[in-house]
Design brief:
This protein is an alpha/beta fold. It folds into 2 domains: 85 residues, Leucine Dehydrogenase, chain A, domain 1 (Rossmann fold, 3-Layer(aba) Sandwich), CATH 3.40.50.10860; 124 residues, 3-Layer(aba) Sandwich (Rossmann fold), CATH 3.40.50. Helices cover 40% and strands 16% of the residues. A 6-stranded parallel sheet has the order 1-11-8-7-5-6. Strands 3-2-4 form a 3-stranded parallel sheet, sandwiched between helices. Helix 6 packs across helix 7. The mean pLDDT is 97. The structure holds NADPH dihydro-nicotinamide-adenine-dinucleotide phosphate. NADPH dihydro-nicotinamide-adenine-dinucleotide phosphate binds next to helix 10.
């Protein structure tokens, strides 16, 4: 029987710390401010944006949501980003991805002031993470590291396997585990004999977007298993990339879906916004 890592509980603890720091910062005259831009009508994105606004309110931040029509042009979106770059009440800018097809994610992200890039997707912030001298960490991998730390799991010297190599999750996750002195292997869709690699893992992080893909036979007895996946089943239920029923009996620790990594992502966004706001204090 694995220990279940309670992401909701850990996220609530971290949010309480953020709220306390926010109150201190407000007393010094700075209210952390987050601007979220959403273009178009994607229902999942709308839910994420609503949750981000709610998260801001809970910890005492100022938040602004810009809901732009699907037909917004690149010039119009860039004009808003540049205006927010100059706005002293805004410390973090987040453009909800994916953008509609006629807009280029990369061009928009590279136009966010790196000091306000609380998703940590700007190439300057990506480079800083590679070097290990960063202000912001990408929210989901940072959340995974907090879950490990708060569960008392030491990464140092461990065999860490990350399945997935996206710029948002897999690659930065591998880098953060490396910074924590793990021995890191990254797997992807071209990996030969994936199960042979995942069975080596003391700490296995799965972020591929395929429901219940990692099964018990792919996991070593006693492994720590972190499931980043969020997949909707036909019945509408949320499920991870890990087959909880067969993996949980073998794992020493495991994150559930929902209630594992998910609650940490917005929490880390709040933390990045707080960090950005603190940096404006002289
Ligand atoms: P991407 O689709 O961008 O990347 C998926 C990665 O998985 C790719 O690197 C791909 O390999 C790899 N992959 C796909 N199929 C296989 C396979 N059969 N074997 C091995 N590797 C495979 O996804 P994201 O990284 O953005 O997201 C991954 C999952 O995490 C999704 O379910 C997403 O919803 C979830 N997510 C959850 C968040 C949260 O807050 N909990 C936040 C962000 C994402 P290749 O590069 O070779 O194509």
């Amino acid at each position: 029987m694995a220990n279940i890592i309670d992401g909701k509980k850990i996220a609530a603890e971290v949010r309480a710390e953020i709220a306390a720091e926010c109150a201190e910062l407000k007393a010094k005259g700075v209210t952390p401010g987050l601007a979220v831009i959403i273009v178009g009508e994607d229902p999942a994105s709308k839910v994420y944006v609503r949750n981000k606004k709610k998260g801001c309110e809970e910890v005492g931040f100022h938040s602004e949501v810009y809901e732009l029509p699907e037909a917004t042009t690149e010039e119009e979106l860039l004009a808003l980003v540049h205006k927010l770059n100059r706005d002293e009440a805004i410390h973090g800018i987040l453009v909800q991805l994916p953008l509609p097809k006629h807009l280029n994610d990369e061009i928009i992200i590279q136009n966010i002031d790196p000091k306000k890039d609380v998703d940590a997707f700007h190439e300057i912030n990506v480079g800083k993470i590679m070097i290990g001298n960063y202000d912001f960490l990408p929210c989901t991998p940072a959340g995974v590291m907090v879950l490990l730390e708060k569960s008392g799991i030491d990464v140092c010297g461990k065999e860490c396997v990350v399945v997935g190599r996206s710029n948002i999750v897999g690659k930065p996750q591998a880098m953060l585990l490396l910074h924590a002195n793990g021995t890191v292997t990254v797997c992807h869709s071209r990996t030969k004999d994936l199960a042979e690699v995942t069975r080596r893992a003391d700490i296995l992080v799965v972020a591929i977007g395929k429901a219940d893909f990692v099964t018990g036979d792919m996991v070593k007895e006693g492994a720590v298993v972190i499931d980043v996946g969020m997949n909707r089943k036909v019945d509408g239920k949320l499920t991870g990339d890990v087959d909880f029923a067969t993996v949980e009996p073998k794992a020493s620790y495991i994150t559930p879906v929902p209630g594992g990594v998910g609650p940490m992502t917005i929490t880390m966004l709040l933390r990045n916004t707080l960090t950005a706001a603190k940096k404006t204090l002289k």
